[in-house]
Amino acid sequence: MTLSYPITSSTEQIELRPRQVEDGLALPRHHKRSSSSSSFVYFKAPPLQTDPIVEETSLPNELYHLASQALPSLLISVVGLVFAGWMMDVFQHWDVFSQVSELFILVPVLLNLKGNLEMNLAARFSTSANLGDLDHPQKRNALIWGNLALIQVQALISGAIAGIFSFFLGIMEHPTVPTTIGESILVITSSMVAATASSFVLGVFMCILIIVSRKMKIDPDNIACPMASSLGDVVTLGILAVCANVLLIYLDSLLGLTLMAGMVFSVPFFARSVWQNKHVKDLLYIGWSPIMVAMLISSFAGLVLERYVEKYKGLAMLTPIVCGLTGNLGSIYASRISTSLHSGTQQDHRVEWVLLLMNVPVQLLFLSVIWLFDMGHLDFTLWFALTYFVVAMICTLIALKMGKSMTLLLWSHGYDPDNYTLPYLTAMIDVICTTLLVVSFSFLTTNGLADMAMNPAEM
Q1: Rounded to an integer, what distance in angstroms lies between the CA atom of residue 126 and that of residue 339?
Q2: pLDDT value at position 58?
């Protein structure tokens, strides 16, 4: 309902409307956050503005801030992604990964799942920060504790589903390989432990990062998602590998089952905390569909990785890096557009091309690092570097286009993009990047441009 107040000194009226109405946008009918829907602005009727994304204007200062803030965060994320790739290159030779091959399927599924939880948190908090919701201590504290409890619920449930799904997918992929109940408990428990532990660590880190960014007048949309993604990969991979290795040692004991039961019984405790928090209460029962669908989509990337990881050297190391960097750039763009839609501000169309160009120095830096340190035992030829660079740029362009179109499509259908876009986007990017990497490795090896085939001594 629109509220109007007559002004004695003028014949005009000042009306109080939600920001989305001011901009000629329909209020999202589903899953709208209370922090956004309670924000109002004054304006003179009738509204003259249109969709800020359709009619974009030139904002050179905004482009400068984007480049100066996002590029350092992307370069920092390269370090995390390179470390994650190196970790995966090492872990693939561990006994637990050799004995329980379902872990290879679980890795992309779990990394995508964890990335979605933290990146959704980053997107929600970035929007809240830009709308000024975090400037009020009482509301800020309620949002922090509510969101930390929420991602624990999401991590525990999604981690269990990811473990179960990956285990049965592995059975379907290798029906002749015998499996045991102990191995199933190992996969599911490792998935849940990695999900819940990394969610707590990264959730606290993201809340602190966004609050500090707000105080330092840095747009969190430009830095939060890359940091969440890259650090999430490192932390989750490390916890998953260590936990799985420990559970393999005590495979015949009740350790795995006890851990699983303890985590299952903790879900109602965290759910009760979320239910009592009015700022995040609605998110307890919505937003599950994109997480589950994204997990299903990313499982195809896991199948590709599991099938070819022992065929091509360097694939285990390059996959999380290419998927991570591409997803980071797409998530920055999607997060910025979502904030623009919530606040009714304008987004420069050149942001897309700035982000694409920013990928050039980042990828060149990565290629230099793996060449200098001879990472992944790659046959580093000029053709390999050129092919990898082309694949990375194609994937990034696809991510940017998909990020924009999906955000606008979800908003037009009444769904909050902060809760829906990133899971779908990162899952599809995982599949695209992994598939294109395998195709490029096959092309290089078949045509004698680079020897990417795994030697029997390296397996």
Answers
A1: 8
A2: 44
Low-confidence ranges of the chain (pLDDT < 70): 1-60, 62, 114-115, 177-178, 287, 347-348, 376, 454-459
Residue (of 274, 295, 299, 268) closest to 286 by Cα position: 274
C-alpha count within 13 angstroms, C-beta hemisphere, residue 239: 24
Amino acid at 129: A
pTM to 2 decimal places: 0.70
Ramachandran angles phi, psi of 129, nearest 5°: -65, -45
Beginning with the edge strand found earlier in the chain, give each strand of the sheet holding 3-6 in spatial order.
3-6, 13-18, 40-44
Q: Which pair of tokens denotes residue 181?
A: 């109940």
pLDDT of residue 269: 92
Peptide bond into 46 cis (omega under 30): yes
User: Measuring CA to CA, how many Å separate 49 from each of 13, 45, 127, 309, 314?
Assistant: 17, 11, 21, 52, 51
pLDDT at 456: 55
**DSSP string for 170-190:** HHHH-TTS---HHHHHHHHHH
pLDDT at 179: 75
Cα–Cα–Cα angle for 448, 453, 454, rounded to 5 degrees: 155
191 alpha carbon, distance to own chain's centre: 17
Q: Give 240-243 contacts, CB < 8 A, sequence gap 24+.
A: 240/103, 240/106, 240/107, 240/110, 240/190, 240/191, 240/193, 240/194, 241/87, 241/91, 241/94, 241/96, 241/97, 243/189, 243/190, 243/193, 243/194
| Cβ neighbours, 10 Å, residue 53 | 18
- DSSP code, position 110: H
User: What is the three-class DSSP state of 4?
Assistant: strand
CA 105-110-116 angle, 5° bins: 140
- Which residue type does 142 have? A
Distance CA 315, CA 157 (A): 30
Residue 57 to residues 88, 106, 157, 220, 454, Cα–Cα distance (Å):
43, 44, 43, 22, 51
Rounded to 5 degrees, what are φ and ψ at 80?
A: -65, -40
**pLDDT value at position 376?**
65
